[in-house]
Each structure stands twice: as C-alpha cells, then as structure tokens.
Amino acid sequence: MPFARLATATTPTCHLGLGLAAIARPGYINLGRDEDLGANRSVEALRARTHELLDAAYFQGVRYFDVARSYGRSEEFLADWLTRNPGVDDVVIGSKWGYTYTADWTTDAERHEVKDHGVGTYDRQRAETAELLGDRLDLYQIHSVTPDSPALTDKELHARLAEAAAQGTTIGFSTSGPAQADAIRTALAVTVDGEPLFRTVQSTYNALETSAAPALAEAHDAGLTVIVKEGMANGRLAGPHAPGALKAVAQETSLGCDAVALALVLRQPWAGVVLSGAATAGQLASNLHAAVVDLDDDQLARLAGLAEEPQAYWGRRGQLPWH
Fold first, then answer.
1. Which of 36, 135, 225, 226 has its CA 20 to 30 A from that of 189?
2. Which helix (H) or strand (E) holds 225?
3. How many C-beta neighbours within 10 Å does residue 267 have?
4. SS3 36
C-alpha cells in the first residue's frame, strides 16, 4: 500500500494531510470563507492559492494530498503543482469519484454537485482523473458512501474497482451522513474473489461528531487505513465559532482551537491520516500545531461533552450555506 510511505515517515506532521475541498472551487460550506478568500476567486487566483498551500504543506512535512472530481479544479491544480515540482516523489495522492461538479465556477449555483455511484460515472470520472493525474494517483475512493448507496452492492462496479486495484491503485471509500457506521461496516464486508475490496476509509470525525468511532476502529483492526475528514466540522470548531469548552482548552494549551480540535482526532489510535482543510497558509500552519498538542484527562473529558447526536449534527451541516 502507498500508505506505507506515511507509516515510515518521521516528521511530526506526517499523519496530517491536506484536503483541497475548500480552496479549489469558489463556493463551499465552510464557515468564514468570505474572510479567507476575499472577492477574487478566479480560476488563476485559486490556482495560485492552492499552489501556495501545497508548497507550505510539503515544506512542513505533509505527505498526503486529497482531492476529488467534484472539488472544482482540485485535480487540475494538484497536477499542475506536481508538474512544477518533479522532484516531489514521496507524496501520496488520493482522489474521489461519484460526484460531478456542476457549479460552473460560481458560488450561487442551484446545485454545486450531483451524486451518482453508477458504473458509467465511474468509467467517465476514472478517465478524467487519469488524464490529469496519470500514474501519480495512489488512492481512488468512492465519494460519500451511505448505507443505501448502490456502490455497496453493484458487482459490476466491484469488478471494475478490483481491476484497478490489480493494476496498482489502492481502492477506498468515504462516508457521510448520520449512518456512517452502518456504511463502514457494510463496506468492510464487500469482497471480490474472496478478497476485501477496500483498503482505506475516509470519514467525518470531530469533537462534535464522534458516532463513527467504533466502526472506524473495526476498519483499522481489519487492516484499512483510516483517513479523517472534517476534523474542524466545516469551521464550527475554528476560533470565531468554537464552543466555550474548546476555547478554554485552547487557551490552556496556548494554541489555537483548530490545533486542539485536530489533536483530539490525531490521538485516536485508529486514525491514520487526519486532513487539514485549510484555505490559507496561516490556517495550515496553525492546524499543523496539532501534532504537538498534549491533552490531559480533564481536558479530554471536557471536550468529550461537546459531542452531538448524529442526526442533529448532520442536520445542521446540511443547512450550512455555500459561501
């Protein structure tokens, strides 16, 4: 598995990755994007911002980069950066298929992305990803699997994915919604010719949404690499919006709310890679301080009290506007 490169890395930040969901398209649901990105969100402006973030992340020891077909031009921006940095050969690249970006580089589209887990979408998007990333793609994930996703039962799709795996691409899946644990456990049972199909799982886990933890532990025990997304709860755990308990612990550690929130995820024994969704180099630097945060039992107990019921958490997330 390509993640062996991360397992043997020695930098403190090697288990923090950078996801480009918030920076490679003009509109997203993260809180505070107006302040982060300003008014100029042209393709070239966001390309330059993305390259700045990738430069900063790589310099500070980050070695996993996460994109998706639906993250605007994330694959294109990352491919450009890789071309400009031919000596960078020690990073792991993951992308996702299953959503099509439909916002046409606007922030007020009626629909920003359309979900389809069918074989036809896989074939089309796999070709699009291959055109941009070629053999630099290490991991290809089904985007946002839920328990009712046809991707969990489609044998033709499973055969296509197994073929890609045989050719050297690691196959994984991501999850979303209040039933993440059910989706994870169902995916763990998917096999092709008696062998497990999926080698990674990417799920939402943070101080407010902890419900997937037992299933993620099971996935880890089964040999999957666990990637954690939305550790900042789409900005709800960032300084200006953070709940009081998190602000208090951050003050005690003399670090940001973001560093504490991500440190809480990093300390989970099943967490292989924890994604930063930073939109600026300053946010990224602050996020990466998570690697040195040390939380005591009292602080952990106070942070544990922030967890919400999954239905409530995902209901609120679904109401976040696209900025």
1. 135
2. strand 225-229
3. 14
4. helix
Alpha helices in the chain (DSSP H): 4-7, 33-37, 43-59, 74-84, 119-133, 155-166, 180-188, 213-221, 244-253, 257-266, 281-288, 297-304, 310-318
Residue type, 9: A
- Residue-wise pLDDT for 185-199, tens only, equals 999 999 999 999 999
> How far is CA 301 from each of CA 216, 238, 245, 253, 307, rounded to the nearest angstrom?
21, 19, 10, 15, 11
Tokens of 42: 């042209």
pTM higher than 0.85: yes
Would you say residue 7 has pLDDT above 90?
no
Exposed e or buried b per residue across 112-125, where buried means at least 16 C-beta atoms within 10 angstroms of its C-beta: bbeebbebebbeeb
Phi then psi for residue 91, to 5 deg, are -100, 155
Using only C-alpha atoms, the chain has a radius of gyration, in whole angstroms, of 18
Q: CA 262 → CA 13, 21, 51, 109, 194, distances in Å?
A: 12, 17, 23, 31, 37
Q: Dihedral through CA 156, CA 159, CA 161, CA 165, nearest 10? A: 180
Q: Which residues pair with 121 in a beta bridge?
A: none
